[in-house]
Design a protein that fits this description.
Blueprint (H helix, E strand, L loop, with lengths): L12 H18 L11 H7 L1 E2 L3 H5 L6 H5 L19 H8 L5 E6 L6 H12 L5 E7 L2 E6 L2 H9 L4 E2 L2 E7 L13 E9 L8 H8 L5 E10 L3 E11 L7 E4 L2 E4 L1 E3 L25 E3 L5 E3 L6 E2 L4
Parallel strand pairs: 12-15
Antiparallel strand pairs: 1-8, 2-4, 2-6, 3-4, 5-6, 7-9, 7-12, 8-9, 10-11, 13-14
Protein name: CCHC-type domain-containing protein
Organism: Quercus lobata (Valley oak)
InterPro entries: At4g02000-like, DUF4283, Znf_CCHC
Length: about 300
C-alpha cells in the first residue's frame, strides 16, 4: 500500500507576516541564547539572593542599648584606695559618642598591617563616595569613621572583605573600647553547600541550615556549571575562635560545608589565624586504623577558592 504524502500548502502573505511576528515575539520573550550558555533563571535566583530582614541588626547588635549595658551603677565595683571617680552626665556621654556612631573597628585577621597600607587597601576595596577618617588604635585594631551613611552601610552589609588573602574582621564602634582588652573574632564568610538537594533551595530552609554555622547575613545561589551541578552559597558570620562546622545533618542526609577564600586555616583545630604547624590548641581529631595505630584526620576538603 502506497503511503500518500501531503505536500505543504503555500502560505498567504498575511500568514507569513503573522508567523514572522510570532517567532519574533517568542525570541524576544525567551532570549536568543547559544546552546553552550546555561539558561539564567532570573526570577528564581532573585528569590534567593539578598539580605535577610533583621539579620545584620541581630548579628551586629544594632539594637544594643549602650546606656543600659554600660552605665548600670549597680554592677560597678567599689572604689579602691588611690582611685578617684568622674561621673559624666547622660547628655555629655551622648554628645561625645555621637561623632563615632558611624564608625567601624576593623582588624586584619591573621596578619599585622600598617596604617598606611590598610587605608590604601580599604579605599581601593570599598571605593567610598566621601572621605573616610582612620585612627590606629594599636594592637592591629583600626577605627574607620565614615562621612556618609551610604558608605557605612555598604561596608557593613556588602562583605565579606579580604585584604590579600586575609579576612577583614569588622564590628561597629562601641563605647569604652580598648585594644588591649578587645577581641574581634567574628567575620563574614561565604560558605558553600555542594550538591544540596533541590528541595532545600528555599530561602527559609537555607537560613535554618546556615544558622547552625552562624548568623546568616545573605543568601545566594550559584551554579558552577550545568555538567557538574550546583551549590548554594550563604554569607555567614562565624566565630574565628571556634572550630569550623564541616558538615550538617538534615534528616538522613549529611551535607558537606565548604568555606571560600580561607588562607590561614589550621587543619589541626579547625580555627583561623594560624597554620597547623603553629597550632597551640592541640585539638587533633584521630581515627583508629585496623592496625591499632592512630592517624590525624585533616579536613582539607572544607576549603575552596573564591569565584572570580
Amino acid at each position: 500500500m502506497d503511503v500518500e504524502l501531503s505536500t505543504p500548502t503555500q502560505r498567504s502573505s498575511e500568514e507569513e507576516d503573522e508567523l514572522h511576528r510570532s517567532v519574533k515575539k517568542f525570541k524576544e520573550s525567551n532570549g536568543a541564547r547559544s546552546f553552550t550558555q546555561p539558561r539564567k533563571l532570573v526570577s528564581y535566583k532573585d528569590s534567593l539572593v539578598g539580605d535577610i530582614p533583621g539579620a545584620y541588626e541581630q548579628a551586629f547588635r544594632f539594637d544594643k542599648d549602650w546606656e543600659e549595658e554600660y552605665e548600670s551603677d549597680t554592677e560597678l565595683e567599689p572604689l579602691l584606695e588611690g582611685m578617684a571617680e568622674v561621673k559624666l552626665s547622660k547628655e555629655t556621654k551622648a554628645r561625645i559618642r555621637a561623632p563615632w556612631s558611624k564608625a567601624l573597628i576593623v582588624k586584619v585577621y591573621g596578619r599585622s598591617v600598617g596604617f598606611n597600607y590598610l587605608t590604601f587597601k580599604i579605599n581601593a576595596l570599598w571605593k567610598p563616595k566621601t572621605k573616610m577618617d582612620g585612627v590606629n588604635l594599636g594592637r592591629d585594631f583600626f577605627l574607620i569613621r565614615f562621612s556618609c551613611n551610604d558608605d557605612y552601610d555598604h561596608v557593613l552589609r556588602e562583605g565579606p572583605w579580604l585584604i590579600g588573602e586575609h579576612f577583614l574582621a569588622i564590628m561597629p564602634w562601641e563605647p569604652y573600647f580598648k585594644a588591649s582588652e578587645a577581641k574581634l573574632s567574628s567575620v563574614a564568610v561565604w560558605v558553600r553547600l555542594p550538591e544540596l538537594p533541590i528541595e532545600f533551595y528555599d530561602a527559609s530552609v537555607l537560613k535554618e541550615i546556615g544558622s547552625v554555622i552562624g548568623p546568616v547575613l545573605r543568601i545566594d545561589s550559584y551554579t558552577a556549571s550545568e555538567t557538574r551541578g550546583g551549590y548554594a552559597r550563604l554569607c555567614v558570620q562565624i566565630n574565628l575562635e571556634k572550630p569550623l562546622i564541616t558538615s550538617i545533618r538534615v534528616g538522613r542526609m549529611v551535607q558537606r560545608v565548604m568555606y571560600e577564600g580561607v588562607s590561614s586555616l589550621c587543619f589541626s583545630c579547625g580555627r583561623f589565624g594560624h597554620k597547623k604547624e603553629n597550632c597551640s590548641f592541640q585539638l587533633k581529631q584521630t581515627v583508629k586504623e585496623n592496625n591499632g595505630q592512630e592517624e590525624q584526620r585533616i579536613n582539607e576538603g572544607v576549603v575552596v577558592s573564591r569565584p572570580n
